[in-house]
Amino acid sequence: MLVAIVSSRSAALLTLFGALVSPAFAVPVEPMVATPDGLRPQANIHAIPIGGSISHIGSDVHILAADGTVTHIARNAGTRSATAALAKKTKREASGWVAWTGWLNTGLSPVSTFTSTWSVPPVPVTYNSQLLYLFNSFFSYDAKAIIQPVLQYGVSPAGGAQGHWAVASWYVTATSGFHSSLVNVSVGQVLNGSLSLLAQNGSTYDYSSEFVGIPGTLLVVNNGPLLPGVSKTLETYGATRKSDYPTGTTVFSNTDLKLESGAAPGFVWNITNDAADGHTAQVNVAGATNGEVTIVY
Ligand SMILES: *[C@@H]1O[C@H](CO)[C@@H](O)[C@H](O)[C@H]1NC(C)=O
Ligand SMILES: *[C@@H]1O[C@H](CO)[C@@H](O)[C@H](O)[C@H]1NC(C)=O
Ligand SMILES: *[C@@H]1O[C@H](CO)[C@@H](O)[C@H](O)[C@H]1NC(C)=O
Ligand SMILES: *[C@@H]1O[C@H](CO)[C@@H](O)[C@H](O)[C@H]1NC(C)=O
């Protein structure tokens, strides 16, 4: 699992604070884990019960069981400082998005559906405790939230194991991560990652994420912020050699994106590649209907 990284300045402050309080006790550093939207405090990761949902209520996020009972209230404000400081200091590791295509919808009609299919890649030849994520997403560019059907390799905060690929839907806010059940998938299995806008009420939005046909992966978020960004992303942590990645490429195919108005928007994918990592995202078929993007490892 990921080890917490602390900037030298905050480390110095923590040391000073530790010395003032008591030289005998180290100040505990909040353990951080790598969600599919960067590092969040381990204590703020929550599994959503099957059939349950998430609801933004004021500045909190409620977790509801299938029968509507509130099972947990996650504070969604006031704890971001550690995360933000960390993200600034170690931006690349903190976000982990090494190759992705994105589009920001600035039009009046929100994106209502976004589906894409891809095959579970071969298992990487070497294991270095690396964590790989592949997903499509709806997200806000101001880092408020993201919803994403995620294929993972390795051990994530949702579980998993060396040598195994698994899927779950995630909803990650500035402070917390929420995930569906994690379900094992096999090499070569074709996945259909599906995102939908379920409803809009004033300035709040209900979204869902699931892998079509894989029970347990549905995640529903109610009363959340508008998520006007869309992406297809390779995100990685701890992979240091080429053999820590699958061989070949992953092709996101059958990409269909529709607006609430029913229209397929005209847009150009914005490509972001982290050159230092050597991975690239390439657009084979542009556009919102039957589009195709290849991730090269
Ligand atoms: C998923 O695979 C892992 C690793 O083999 C295994 O430990 C776990 O039991 C599997 N989970 C299910 C639900 O089959
Ligand atoms: C993926 O699932 C959606 C339903 O969410 C469906 O409309 C679409 O046809 C599926 N794509 C493929 C290629 O099967
Ligand atoms: C829509 O939002 C308003 C105010 O935020 C709330 O009073 C109302 O119950 C909501 N309607 C639905 C259908 O959720
Ligand atoms: C487009 O990609 C560039 C880097 O390639 C990035 O700096 C910029 O923020 C991206 N814009 C959007 C809207 O994603």
What does this structure look like?
With 297 residues, the protein is mainly beta. It has one domain (30-296): Jelly Rolls (Sandwich), CATH 2.60.120. 10% of the residues lie in helices and 50% in strands. It has three helices and 21 strands. It has helices at 8-21, 80-89, 91-95, and strands spanning 32-35, 38-41, 45-47, 53-57, 60-64, 70-75, 97-104, 111-119, 131-139, 145-156, 159-173, 177-179, 183-185, 190-201, 204-211, 219-224, 229-237, 249-259, 270-273, 280-285, 291-296. The strands form three sheets. A ten-stranded mixed β-sheet has the order 6-5-4-16-15-14-8-18-21-20, with no helix packed on it. Strands 3, 7, 9, 10, 11, 12, 13, 17 and 19 form a nine-stranded mixed β-sheet that branches. Strands 1-2 form a two-stranded antiparallel sheet. β5 (60-64) and β6 form a beta hairpin. The longest helix has 14 residues, at 8-21. 38% of the residues are buried. Bound molecules: 2-acetamido-2-deoxy-beta-D-glucopyranose (NAG) (4 copies). The site of one 2-acetamido-2-deoxy-beta-D-glucopyranose (NAG) has 6 residues, from β8 and β14. The site of one 2-acetamido-2-deoxy-beta-D-glucopyranose has 6 residues, from β8 and β14.
Kindly estimate the percentage of residues that lie in beta strands according to DSSP: over 45%
* Percent range of helical residues: under 10%
- Average pLDDT number: 86
Question: What is the number of domains?
Answer: 1
Kindly report the CATH topology. Jelly Rolls
Shape descriptor reads globular
Number of strands: 21
